[in-house]
Amino acid sequence: MQEPGSGRPSAPGTALPMPAVTSEAAWRLxxxxxxxxxxxxxxxxxxxxxxxxxxxxxxxxxDYVFGGRSGSTTLLDLFDGRRQLIVYHFMYAPxxxxxxxxxSRRMDDMGRLEHLHARQTTLVAVARADYARLAAxxxxxxxxxxxxSSGASTFNQDMGVTDADGDxxxxxxxxxxxxxxxxxxxxxxxxxGVEPAGFRALxxxxxxxxxxxxxxxxxxxxxxxxxxWSSARDE
Length: 235
Prior knowledge:
Helices cover 29% and strands 17% of the residues. The protein is an alpha/beta fold. Strand 2 (65-68) and strand 3 (71-74) form a beta hairpin.
């Protein structure tokens, strides 16, 4: 017998911690009760996403410059021609010996980006370490999310993820670009708010959402039938 998650045998005479065992009928009753609560939680999350799509935005005024694979680039360039931009604020300060472990796990969570791109949404990571160190870390971990250095600007400070003492926080910032090329910040979340990382959960953070007809979105929002849109990954 092994301790759960440890790979080590349980101590002799120690009962294995595990859920109670019951009859099939009792299990179905308990499962149905839990399912009702799960459905209620899903509907509550849908309502929050609908409110997020109606959250007012604030114009981004800073003329920020980022270091990337092709040299210096701007915030508008990070959109890569798309309407929406999700930035993961990655904790990796210029003087840090190694990247933040939690942020590293968050990059491990990220899946294929094509599904975001199909919804006019770009995802990037931004950290204050110089780009050469970031590129080395990305190469060693095999991460595919594009990464940029904000160390030459006040981007982190203005976004509220680096304080005056240089202490850092992590999080997602969401930006929207209008036809005139003005960028706006529409949303920010940190803490456990960054845990959902699938492309649907990431789209839920944006002003346009998943862009499916079942969503409660303002009039004029781009929408298509559920599963009626495709990406480069779809067969």
